């Protein structure tokens, strides 16, 4: 293997890039220790490299659809059926709860219905397979954008940015996530398209190694990553639809992609055959690792249990608890990456299994031949030739129409974006009885009639619907005879931001900065008291109480 040639080096850095990406995915699932850095960019990097290796003009869209069904959906469906059989067997013998805890088994029929109707996967060991469904959709979506753009790279990129902005709007409004994860696709297609555009413009540049550029780049991107992860809290969680500011997210994703590229180039230049072969094997089997690593986590749980390093209760987890993950993440990653690579390579050598996981080269070759035949057939048709000639002759007109369409879409989108996130904003002043419809009081808030306060039993949650809020001021009271209640915790989206000692200040009033904890238009604030005061036997109020809130002001 000549690792100094441009062509070989290009292939090497791509495989190494894929290998590093899947290692980060597995590491992020094994422990949360590094997720403040990994979750800045790891999935964006996968979409980027998928777009980089894409060829927009290689197949017609029908053949592309068939190929993606074969290479992405078929392996997912094959593993889904295997997991259904496993879960059904465990459920039949009464062992399901031992392996999956409270994650219910909804039955074979319902699992298939959810998969085909909604794109959801209720096979718990296939937790990473949602990525393949998103990748399948964006592959087709991006090809359609390419055609709509009349294969003009500038118009194509403009459409991509517009759709990206719309994706963030859908996330903020909780839209387009019922039937298939379309909202995530609108965001993910941007990085896929960036990968294709980078290849279109910078292919020769990326294939060359320049130590004077690479080393400063990796140092700068590392410092940026550390700063953003430590101080800015910009981790992205696609499945939870937890996104931060669109500009900051885009910046950290691109920064992480640059970091991975630089690291891939450095590894490719080690001239160590064993090291390069290791990364190449991993990079060429990322699909298998993605689909198998949760199952291999189970194997790791069993090994740790046999060695009496973890209790039996851990066996019901899909991913390690924080305590187990923080101590043994290296073992989870090692077993998942090594066995995942070995198993997938072995499966690809067995013809029938190779077909079921979408890796049979004979099928792919046949599809390529069909694609070429169709292309030649179309090119020989007079009608098609006339249409192509008409499109070429009217290319400037189509470009102007596309530009006008883009401009109109941008104006509408920017206005809507500005109105929803900025112009429609106003502080919320909540008094009781509450009459505002923009907030939702969840469990814990006791019923009230016309009191100018509201009691909470244990903890009460309010759901707000605007992300421009920066601080919250709360006023309330805990009676002195409520000896069971000594503290009030304020949590934003489950993260504690402040604690009030209600014994020292039973009549409390506090303003708390919350802007760093809000990542979407819908967020929760929870008031959690550490005790509940039971009613006295002769009390006129039979309710169990913790404290009351009289005023909430959020701006």
Descriptive overview:
- With 555 residues, the protein is of the alpha+beta class.
- A hairpin with a 2-residue loop joins strand 6 and strand 7.
- The chain folds into 3 domains: 357 residues, no CATH class; 37 residues; 127 residues, Jelly Rolls, CATH 2.60.120.
- Strands 1, 3, 5, 8 and 10 form a 5-stranded antiparallel beta sheet that branches.
- The N terminus is likely disordered.
- It starts with 5 loop residues before the first helix and ends with a strand.
Put simply, the count of helices is 18
Compute the separation of the termini in Å.
Answer: 62 Å
Unreliable runs, pLDDT <50, ≥5 residues?
A: 1-10
User: How large is the share of residues in beta strands?
Assistant: 5-15%
| Strand elements, count | 10
How many domains in all?
Answer: 3
The biggest sheet amounts to: 5 strands, antiparallel
**Gyration radius, in Å:** 27 Å
**Given the C-alpha coordinates, what overall shape results?**
globular
> Which percent range fits the helix content?
55-70%
Structural category is alpha+beta
Rounded average pLDDT? 82
| Elements, N to C (H/E) | HHHHHHHHHHHHHHHHHHEEEEEEEEEE
Which key phrases capture this entry?
single chain; 555 residues; alpha+beta; Jelly Rolls; 3 domains; 5-stranded antiparallel β-sheet; 18 helices; 10 strands
């Amino acid at each position: 293997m000549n690792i100094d040639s441009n062509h070989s080096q290009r292939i090497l850095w791509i495989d190494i890039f894929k290998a590093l990406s899947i290692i980060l995915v597995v590491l992020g699932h094994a422990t949360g220790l590094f997720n403040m850095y990994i979750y800045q960019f790891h999935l964006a990097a996968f979409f980027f490299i998928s777009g980089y290796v894409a060829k927009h003009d290689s197949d017609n869209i029908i053949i592309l659809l068939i190929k993606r069904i074969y290479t992405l959906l078929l392996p997912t469906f094959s593993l889904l059926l295997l997991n259904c059989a496993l879960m059904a067997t465990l459920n039949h013998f009464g062992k399901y709860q031992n392996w999956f805890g409270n994650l219910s088994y909804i039955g074979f029929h319902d699992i298939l219905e959810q998969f085909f109707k909604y794109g959801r996967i209720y096979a718990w060991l296939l937790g990473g397979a949602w990525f393949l469904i998103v990748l399948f959709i964006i592959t087709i979506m991006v090809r359609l954008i390419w055609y709509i753009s009349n294969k003009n790279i500038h118009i194509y990129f403009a459409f991509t940015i517009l759709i990206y902005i719309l994706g963030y709007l859908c996330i903020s409004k909780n839209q387009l996530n019922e039937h298939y994860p379309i909202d995530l696709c609108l965001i993910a297609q941007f990085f896929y398209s960036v990968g294709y555009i980078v290849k279109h413009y910078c292919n020769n540049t990326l294939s060359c190694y320049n130590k004077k550029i690479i080393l400063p780049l990796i140092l700068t991107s590392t410092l940026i990553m550390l700063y953003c992860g430590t101080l800015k809290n910009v981790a992205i969680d696609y499945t939870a639809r937890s996104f931060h500011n669109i500009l900051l997210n885009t910046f950290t994703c691109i920064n992480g992609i640059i970091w991975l590229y630089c690291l891939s180039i450095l590894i490719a230049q080690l001239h160590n055959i064993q090291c390069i072969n290791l990364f190449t094997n991993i990079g060429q089997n990322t699909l298998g690792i993605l689909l198998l690593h949760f199952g291999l986590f189970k194997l790791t749980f069993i090994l740790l249990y046999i060695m009496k390093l973890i209790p039996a209760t851990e066996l019901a987890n899909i991913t390690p608890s924080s305590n187990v993950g923080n101590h043994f993440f290296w073992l989870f990653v090692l077993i998942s990456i090594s066995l995942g690579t070995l198993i997938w390579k072995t499966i690809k050598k067995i013809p029938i299994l190779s077909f079921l996981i979408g890796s049979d080269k004979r099928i792919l070759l046949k599809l390529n031949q069909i694609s070429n035949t169709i292309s030649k057939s179309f090119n020989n048709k007079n009608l098609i030739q006339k249409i192509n000639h008409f499109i070429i002759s009217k290319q400037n007109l189509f470009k102007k129409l596309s530009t006008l369409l883009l401009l109109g879409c941008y104006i509408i989108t920017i206005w809507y974006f500005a109105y929803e996130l900025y112009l429609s904003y106003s502080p919320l002043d909540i008094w009781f009885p509450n009459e505002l419809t923009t907030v939702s009081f969840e469990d814990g808030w006791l019923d009230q009639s016309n009191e100018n306060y509201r009691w909470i039993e244990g903890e009460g949650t309010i759901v707000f619907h605007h992300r421009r809020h920066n601080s919250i001021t709360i006023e309330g009271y805990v009676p002195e005879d409520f000896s069971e209640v000594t503290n009030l915790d304020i949590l934003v989206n489950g993260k504690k931001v402040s604690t009030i000692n209600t014994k020292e200040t039973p009549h409390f009033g506090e303003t708390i900065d919350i802007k760093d904890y809000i990542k979407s238009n819908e967020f929760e604030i929870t008031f959690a008291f550490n005790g509940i005061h039971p009613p006295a036997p002769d009390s006129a109020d039979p309710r169990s109480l913790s404290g009351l809130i009289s005023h909430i002001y959020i701006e």
